Amino acid sequence: MPAYRLKQAMRSYYQELVDDWADITTWSEKLRADCANSAWSPLTVKTVLQTQDPPSVKFAFQTADGLTIETVVMRHADGRNTVCVSSQVGCAMGCAFCATGTMGIKRNLTAEEIVDQVVQAARWLKIQKMSIKSQVYQVAGQRPEGHDGPDRPEGRITNIVFMGMGEPFNNPDEVFESIRILTSPDMFGLGARHISISTCGIVTGIQRLAEEAPQVNLAISLHAPTQEMRQQIMPVAKAYPLDRLMRAVRKYLELTHRKVMFEYVLLEGVNDSQDDAEDLADLFNEYRHLAHVNLINYHQTGVFKPTSEANAKKFQNVLRRRGISVTRRISFGEEIRAACGQLATRETE
Ligand code: SAH
Ligand code: SF4
Q1: Separation of 165 CA from ligand 2 center, angstroms?
Q2: Which of 53, 105, 119, 287 could cross-link to 92 by cystine, CB 3.0-4.6 Å?
């Protein structure tokens, strides 16, 4: 096929978000029919679960080789829609508090499989918007003013976070390729500043991010302020000790001048004392203006207990007093097991 045919197909897939070859209106009937037996998307939707308050959607997708992965969309009150994508089937890192960690690793996802999670989530949001439109249409008995044609503004994906299943920097080639596709104006075309990668602390990936995609946001799953405590709950700390990790972060800050987010899940009696908060503040001393701490509620996976609300506030206050910018993360989708650390699929059929 001539190159412009590929461009037309890419436009239909990434931007018009159509769900089949048959809907590429710029192609002849014959061309569409010729492709009818090839897969349009690398992933197939298995189930879609929704919550209302706060609104979130969890997709279970099946890969061509029969594995299941999960993707979550968080619909924020300010109109942003954040899609949380998986980068691997399972995860090899074995963090003690994380359900994905208990699955072990099945395989890396390809760049196409990572991107398709975003495209399918965007397609779903677009269909939601259209179904609302068609209800309005039925009630009013006429097509509402200015409401024809594909209508992306309200139902579009505004942010992408690599915070689903898997450790993105254990699959760096496919993850960086997916970022290239997601940010390319000819393809999905989202600004790199709207994309965030979360890592448990793979130093080589942090270095590569600074060089290859400095506009993409970096989040570090820190979860402990000392090496001793960290290696008890995160085995990765043995391979990449805390001092080496913090040196890599410092280097990243010097190169990019971007703020780094540190995620910290509060586990009762493990890492949630006020002394722990002081130790945490000590880690950021000379570049505290570029560090942001995000305190996460522990979502039950059976091993630990979540910190009480009163304790979480005390922890937050210590950090504030030390001049560190700190927020508490709102939990999305806990009741459909879509919250941080809850994504895990049972044995695949
Ligand atoms: N593997 C990457 C990406 C996953 S992001 C990473 O670990 O950073 C998912 C976030 O949720 C991480 O910060 C992870 O540490 C955190 N998390 C894992 N289990 C959790 C749980 N049970 N409750 C709350 N947060 C959890
Ligand atoms: Fe893997 Fe991240 Fe879960 Fe740790 S927290 S097991 S790195 S997905």
Answers
A1: 7
A2: 105
* 3-state secondary structure labels for all residues of 51-118: EECCEEEEEEEECCCCCEEEEEEEECCCCCEEEECCCEEECCCCCCCCHHHHHCEEEECCHHHHHHHH
> What pLDDT digit, counting tens, does each position of 48-84 carry?
998 887 888 999 999 999 999 999 999 988 889 999 9
The yes-or-no verdict on residue 196 having pLDDT over 80 is yes
Residues with active-site annotation: 70, 340
Closest residue by Cα to atom 24, ligand 1, is 298
pLDDT tens-digit readout, 147-160: 444 333 457 999 99
Q: Which pLDDT belongs to residue 129?
A: 66
Question: 257: CA distance to ligand 1 center in Å?
Answer: 25
Ligand sitting nearest the alpha carbon of 163: 1
Atom of ligand 1 nearest to the CA of 297: 24
